[in-house]
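PROTEIN DESIGN WORKSHEET
SECTION A - STRUCTURE
LENGTH: 509
TOKENS:
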């Protein structure tokens, strides 16, 4: 592959001087490629060709360790601030990451190419700027799983071990991850310039972000308010998608919320198994600030922090600006609820509207969730088996529940709701409806999610024994989450209750 030059077009470096510090990656003594995402590379127009596999791996290792950056790269550390667990840190910034450049993908979309774990930067504070292989492979697995589930996310292009050890609670193999993102502009980026910078800088950042993530608003008189509304809308939808697959981000600090609306920063995240709205897995989230059912509330809180930075742009008159921003923030719960209900309907196999549908469908979804909670049933499998039930096979769903009366009562209501909808539709027989519904439901109720015990198993093998096979097998399974494949069933099985009770995620810094 010829990647000596990537067609970089680095607008952040060019247009936002003063918003970052130029910085080179630290050299890696013995880089080895452990992961390369060929599909994503093709999407970026980087698909390697020609070379024999081992020469290619060596080339990629050299590039994605940062040892030899392609021509046109302008590595830089971005400045940002952030509220971490509610406490404002006025200066965070890329302490172990570098934006290498931007490129235009095959769809004409601008994407950031960034390193994570490539060494110290002026923002490293007491950190070493490095990363261990485990957390980097974790980011690959969860990011690719989210992508396959259809949820907006940053993605990993490559992981390279550096040949160096990093010291955490013990020595671990160091690694660098290459991340592709719509951008790395965060709520915290705005907070940094609202705190340390001038109004001119905040305006410049806002105009840049609008041009990049909402070009249709360029030139609009009320563009800042409209943009804020758009960012809020994207978060409302994103968090609803998380909720519907049982995803817990784990560290929704304002520096980990992307203005592009992608899921970003896979640290102590996890997927829920038995349905439990208060679920927390992060070892550092003592008070459950970022629990599963707190995520919409926190997204709104973070948006309020973003609004504070935009007030002078929203209106010259501050009380008026506050009023306008508050309207958006106050509308957030209803917008999130709207996206949640849309998603819940799809998961329940409901396509059409019936009289009083909003009330009926909300109650149906909430009562179903209450049922799962009371019975401590696996969230993912319960939804999937409900799809089977729609198709006429009720046994697997029943087998998940110890007690059947409440389930039967709920199923009567659900079937009545489905029948009401079918009666309004054209299609010929109820059998057609049943099959079509089951099929639709299988497209939104995954069979496979990254189960915590399988993720840990794969990362342990890679990290402790240098064995990448379990990682590769799990990754392959996660690429088709909506297809039930018997050969992959070990990845679909829930963990034991004792694993789930004690499982904790760590920040991996
Ligand atoms: P995170 O919790 O990953 O969102 O990171 C929060 C802040 O800590 C960011 O400014 C990171 O750049 C910084 N950080 C995390 N790990 C390290 C590290 N090993 N060395 C230097 N800075 C780090
Ligand atoms: Mg972060």
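SECTION B - SEQUENCE
RESIDUE ASSIGNMENT:
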């Amino acid at each position: 592959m010829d990647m000596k030059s990537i067609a970089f077009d680095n607008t952040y470096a060019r247009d936002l001087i003063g918003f970052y510090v130029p910085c080179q990656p630290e050299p890696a003594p013995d880089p080895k490629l452990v992961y390369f995402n060929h599909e994503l590379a093709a999407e970026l127009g980087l698909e390697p060709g020609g070379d024999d596999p081992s020469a290619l791996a060596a080339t990629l290792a050299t590039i994605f360790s940062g040892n030899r950056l392609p021509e046109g790269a302008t590595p830089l550390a971005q400045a940002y601030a952030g509220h971490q667990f509610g406490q404002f840190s006025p200066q965070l910034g890329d302490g172990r990451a570098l934006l290498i450049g931007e490129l235009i993908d095959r769809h004409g979309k601008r994407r950031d190419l960034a390193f994570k774990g490539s060494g110290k930067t002026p923002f490293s504070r007491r950190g070493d700027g490095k990363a261990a292989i485990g957390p980097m492979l974790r980011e690959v697995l969860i990011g690719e799983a989210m992508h396959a589930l259809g949820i907006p996310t940053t993605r990993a292009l490559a992981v390279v071990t550096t040949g160096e050890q990093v010291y955490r609670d013990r020595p671990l193999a160091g690694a660098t991850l290459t991340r592709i993102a719509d951008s790395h502009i965060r709520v915290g980026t705005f907070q940094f310039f609202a705190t340390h910078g001038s109004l001119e800088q905040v305006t410049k950042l806002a105009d840049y972000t609008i041009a990049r993530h909402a070009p249709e608003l360029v030139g609009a008189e009320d563009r800042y308010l409209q943009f804020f509304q758009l960012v809020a809308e994207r978060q409302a939808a994103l968090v609803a998608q998380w909720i519907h697959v049982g995803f817990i981000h784990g560290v929704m600090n304002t520096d980990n919320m992307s203005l592009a609306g992608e899921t970003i920063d896979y640290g102590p995240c996890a997927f829920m198994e038995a349905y439990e709205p208060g679920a927390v897995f992060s070892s550092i989230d003592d008070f459950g600030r970022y629990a599963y059912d707190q995520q919409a509330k926190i997204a709104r809180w973070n948006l309020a922090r973003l609004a504070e930075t935009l007030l002078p742009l929203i209106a010259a008159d501050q009380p008026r600006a506050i009023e306008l921003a508050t309207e958006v923030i106050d509308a957030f719960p209803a917008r999130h609820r709207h996206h949640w209900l849309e998603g819940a309907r799809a998961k329940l196999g409901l396509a059409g509207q019936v009289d009083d549908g909003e009330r009926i469908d909300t109650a149906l979804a909430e009562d179903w969730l209450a049922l799962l909670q009371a019975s401590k049933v696996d969230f993912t499998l319960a939804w999937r088996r409900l799809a089977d039930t729609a198709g006429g096979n009720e046994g697997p769903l029943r087998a998940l529940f110890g007690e059947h009366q409440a389930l039967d009562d709920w199923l009567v209501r659900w079937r009545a709701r489905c029948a009401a909808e079918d009666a309004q539709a054209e299609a010929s027989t109820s059998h057609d409806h049943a099959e079509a519904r089951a099929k639709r439901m299988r497209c939104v109720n995954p069979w496979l999610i990254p189960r915590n015990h399988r993720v840990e198993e794969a990362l342990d093998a890679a990290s402790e024994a240098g064995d990448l096979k379990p990682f590769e097998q799990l990754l392959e399974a996660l690429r088709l989450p909506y297809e039930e494949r018997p050969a992959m069933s070990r990845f679909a099985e829930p963990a034991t209750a004792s694993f789930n009770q004690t499982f904790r995620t760590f920040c991996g810094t």
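SECTION C - NOTES
Residues 11-184 form one domain.
The pocket of magnesium ion (ligand 2) is lined by residues 255-256, 265 (CB under 6 Å).
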